Amino acid sequence: MTYNAALPLVRYNNESAVGFPQLQSPWDLEQGHWYEPDPYNHPRRPLHIRRLQDDQVKCERNLGWSIEYATAFIVNHLDPAHSPDAAATLKRICTRASQLARDGRGVDVAYDLFNQLNQCLFADRLRDAVYMEIGPMGPDISGATFTHGHGPNPRVKRVTIMLNSDVHGRARGKEVIASLIHHMIHAYFLIACGPQTEEEVEYGRLSHGLAFAKVSRTIKNLTIARGGRPILRLGFGHVLSPRNHYYDEYHDHTGSEQFKIEKEDWYQSYCPAHVLSLPVGDMDKWYNAACAPLLDLPKAIRENKVLIFNKRNELEKVPRGKATPSNSSLEFLIDKKSASVLVPKKLFEDFLSIKAAFDKKKSRYMDIKLDKVPKDAFMTLLELLHTGSYSPDLAAVMGEGRMGGPPVIKGVRSGGKEYLGTDVRMWNLGVELGFDEVKSVAMDRLRAQCACYEDPVEVLRDVYKEKDPEPEMRQYVKEFLMRAPMPEGAYDGALGVGAAALTMGMGMAAANGASALAGTPNLWKLQQELCFRERFLDLMDQCGALHIDVLKAEEMLAAQGRTPSPPSRYGVGVVGPYSPPAPALLPTALSNPLSLSMGMGVGMGMSVPGLPVAGVPLPVAPRPLTIPWTGLSAGSALDEYERVREIQEERALAAQMSAMEMLY
Ligand SMILES: [Zn+2]
User: Fold this and answer.
1) Are residues 265 and 126 in the same domain?
2) Residue 225 CA to ligand 1 centre (angstroms)
3) Residue 19, domain member (yes or no)
4) 245 C-alpha vs ligand 1 centroid, how far in Å?
5) What ipTM does the predicted assembly reach?
6) How many other CB atoms are there within 10 angstroms of residue 252's CB atom?
7) Could you read off the pLDDT of 16-56 as tens digits, one per residue?
């Protein structure tokens, strides 16, 4: 049997201290058969060494950890508080390696000491999960670590570490140890985070990134001697040298090209002597923000999969290797820390308060307590971060060229979109989490709406139910309560609803169209209309802040000369065009310009403030105190609404003409 440098090498029986002429391949690549018996894999060798070389051993260990937790696990494991003997053990291993090298058994170092290093540094997580070879790989690299099933030996389905005999043959013991630990770190990340895939190269299992740097530096620091210098020169590259001139003459190196690796490929590491190192400050900053917090977080957050917000506005679980790297992303923890949602950092550029909240925590994880922040509000926040806005679109409630909000209560559409409700929840989220930009966006949207088709009582409940709202929101509510349609905006939104939307709420919309014409403030509708009154009063009883704000709104309305209509003889809650004829109207100060638009109470018929004219009877006969449109079909209700509107338009025009005549 002759030496073939093209083949991976293992030690032969007649070992020598000079070079590796005695190394022989255990398998023949060309002929595909085995040399028997394998001299190095002798039964008298320790079992762990034989298993390192056994290409039949199966081990599918995949810890399923994120690379951040895998890093934190090792750093935590090697903390003197948890492994007080780790430093002494590693130094003994280095001493042993030096002794073996001096005895001319340098090639034994890797096989003999792998198991001890695994137990000491990696908490035995590599046991049986690694296959190791030593073979010629040219002068440039220390070796290579291959992901599962992609090593040079096609029979091996485990992770493969292949050390380069061209640079290890004459290395000192501690240099071999440093190189072996380097490749064991690569192997550890493959086992902790699962096999490498072609799409996940950037994740860093086999690269010399932050995770590798933190672990290697932690191990190197274990070997710091009295003078403050580490014994092991463990780092990004290596200090191994190619064989000397004597070796080059002695050997035919043509076979080294067989496993020569000139660049990083997706399934293997590329480990040259010189690798650009990372600043220690960056490494520690990343570790403290991304890794260390995981030690106190639940198992689910440590996993190798994470939720992201996809283009369908849904949460989707993806491998972390396919998501934005941890140094460029932040995570919200939800569902009692049972899941996390990853968001790229660049999406927070316009949300400085959110970035500041993360910075304040000095962590890339923020717990979102869903008992205080509803999940739908959280999803809306994600939509805002990813798209710059959120649904529903306000076009349907803004009106064209009209004055903005607060909106006028138009009617309640069953099953309609929640415009105000969504924005109030976003406001609350901003308050709860201290996200000022979110509050600003929500308030801008609230003020942009001029028509309300939601249940205003439920909206107010969301505002006041948890605690007293902030002054800005209370001011908005007071303006909302005082809001009444202007004459030129009497039909804001009410006519823009579309016939299709006027199904169940058709009668209400018709009623509100008429009441809007009368300029009824929202507060009076809440206090008088049957569908709101009881619940609104109950809410006032429950929420002192709302009660106060209602009183203030009433005061301000009164200061503007607007007072609620006296109780109707038909009872409270009779509103809109179905109301009975109103009694004679009381004069109102004409000097108040607002009075022209605000008019008198709902159900009082059309009037002109300041003019002692009696309310003109509506064309519809008085209805009992039930919802008057219940018995109407959709078509007839719409017709009736249009008819009432035409009549009221005529009356409004006539009344204004009369007022003008009186002035002149
Ligand atoms: Zn490497």
Assistant:
1) yes
2) 25
3) no
4) 26
5) 1.00
6) 12
7) 333 333 333 333 333 333 333 444 555 567 888 889 999 99
